[in-house]
Amino acid sequence: MxxxxxxxxxxxxxxxxxxxxxxxxxxxxxxxxxGFFDDDSRWQTEEERAFSESHKHLVGCxxxxxxxxGNEGDLALAxxxxxxxxxxxxxxxxxxxxxxxxxxxxxxxPRDFDPTRTSLRSLVMGTSVQP
Length: 131
Description:
α2 packs antiparallel against α3 and α3 (72-80) packs parallel to α4. The protein has one domain (2-125). The chain is built from five helices and four strands; from the N terminus they run αββααβαβα. The protein has helices at residues 2-11, 46-55, 72-80, 95-101, 120-125, and strands at residues 18-19, 41-42, 86-88, 106-108. α4 links the parallel β3 (86-88) and β4 (106-108).
């Protein structure tokens, strides 16, 4: 599965973007989670901000091995599902599941997903992307 994901990201030219943000005294400089005013950064949309604000209570208070707080990364992805398709295998309760339940653009791959039998395209195209 990992090889399939890496190959698909390269072939489809998946774009990574950062949101513009401001310093937070609680986060050390080497752990900043935002971009600055450059070509790869953008402002968070009102819809993304509304989703993030209404679900920020799902973010844990302890850092994980990644350096992120529990559900912090999932919340950032789930908020982007307002305008982008998010593909995940995560089925645990949290921001991604909530976004999926609210009809946002989250494709939950079945546990037995086999790219040789099912087209990722067919799963993604079954998700109507919000403008």
